[in-house]
Design goal:
Blueprint (H helix, E strand, L loop, with lengths): L2 E6 L7 H12 L5 E3 L11 E2 L11 E6 L12 E6 L6 H15 L3 E7 L4 H8 L3 E5 L4 H14 L4 E5 L1 H6 L6 E4 L8 H8 L5 E4 L12 E2 L21 E6 L8 H14 L4 E6 L7 H12 L5 E2 L6 H7 L2 E4 L9 H9 L3 E4 L4 H5 L6 E2 L4 H12 L4 H15 L1 H15 L6 H13 L8 H8 L8 H15 L2
Parallel strand pairs: 1-2, 3-7, 5-6, 5-8, 6-7, 8-9, 9-10, 10-11, 12-13, 12-15, 13-14, 15-16, 16-17
Antiparallel strand pairs: 1-4
Amino acid sequence: MTRHILFDSRWSGPHGIGRFSAEVRRRMPSSLVTDLTGGPTRPAGHRTDGNGNGSAHPGSLRLAPDWSAPKEVPVTSSIYIASNQGEIGGGEAMLLALARAMRDLGREVTVVGPRDPGELVAAASDQGFETVAIGGDSTVKYLGNLRRWDEKARDGLLWCNGLRPAFATSGRLNRVVHLHQRPAGRLVAAAKAAGWGAARTLVPSRSMQKGIPTPDVLWNWSEPVPVRPRRPMPKDRPITVGFLGRLSRDKGVHVLCNAVALLNDKQPGRFRLLLAGEARFVTGKGAAGVRQAVAELGDLAQAPGWMDRDEFFGRTDLAVFPSVWAEPFGLVVIEAMAARCPFVVSDAGALPEVAGPDYPFIARNGDAASMAATIERAASAEWDDLLDASHRRWQEHFSPTAGRERLRDVLDQLDPARDGDEAAATALRGTVRRLDEQPLEPQQILDHADRLSKESIGNHLRGAFEELMTRGKR
């Protein structure tokens, strides 16, 4: 039986099928290589500065039984997601999640960000996205170049992930303004200007709607987290109170340190503090104040720096998120819900909204005594039912599936997806690109294949992807 190489030029992986297929392709005659995009072979993750200059990563192969290669398949309108900055913070992590969800929904996605620092562009390329790297050695120059690129080169919907790209493209049509932080001071006027001409303005919580013209809420979501084994609060050792995030005053780290000190005065040795994070994006004065608060706890506190999220939840008995500023969402809270980790939040911004209307462990923000009392109550509570309820809330509202459905509604209103083979083939390609990132069950692939008509490539793709999945799991 003849075998063809099915090659998707827009996706590559650092290991597994991606690396193997890239090596095989170099050794195969071009007559046996078929690009799943239906177009000319273009390496995945191609980077360009908007003027046609760029570098590329090797593409990937797909091995399959003999089949008739499809003609070029039209796809839904392109979406460009423009970044607020080149480094990866919370907003940029959400940008990548949005991009993956859009791809899963069958959209063609390009990530646009600064060339330097290029952390985001590199991460997007590594995940198989087309990228546009915009030059500029300062924020002002980046935004000016972004505006020029938008006027000359954009040919689809622009999703402005943050105030900077939204302000830079103010007045341009076919845009979504997606704000992840509440504008304050002079930025309030900038936010109003950023919305001029936008088809939609989105914010991640109801608490962020105030002060922003006509925004709609699009809750964030998180990837699954390994669920912790059920375990009671320890009796034979100190309770580990854990904080995960940026070590800064706006995150309330100093309040948490003071609360642990109060708890130690009342119950010596009963609590220990684990601070997982660094003072990234924090001013020198702010970082010094947090270091002082941590130092005053002595051996009651441990600050190992950034820690893997799964390790953090595994080591923490009670997670605490003590923010004093108006949190626009609270991503780490939904991660705790997904992990079934007990947690306490302050009442800052959207944290109570995310935790849920009946959540019992909410402290007053900026109040160390209130935080200490709430931690003490939480440490003596029965958690099983509450953890089950929080995990169900995550599944229903904050899981990737829930997030994709909310995003689908937004995109279908802005740019309705095409029916039939065009959208199905695009969604299928997006699903298969994820094989290196997370192995999928064969039925998940077949669910997409079932959407293809008999006149198209459905039957051939079934056999191709069944074999591909078998090879990918070996």
